[in-house]
Amino acid sequence: MTTPSKGRALVDRGRMVALAREYNIFVSYSTVYRWTCEPGFPTAVGKSGKSLLYDRIDFVNFIERLVSKIESDG
Prior knowledge:
The protein has one domain (10-73). The chain contains three helices and three strands; from the N terminus they run βααββα. The chain has helices at residues 13-22, 29-35, 56-73; strands at residues 10-11, 46-48, 51-55. Strand 2 and strand 3 (51-55) form a beta hairpin.
């Protein structure tokens, strides 16, 4: 799946791992799967085959909140 770097795009959980790593959060696919149960995680907005799709901007906002929380705790 190819997604544009900016704008409203849909991403699957595999792409979420790559986006998290861009923010220097080195996670695995299972961590992203665990995040789906946390409050504030974006809701799925589509499906492509077996993959649930999420809004890219909503996920980036979730990552930024997570980074802010980590920074304030540390």
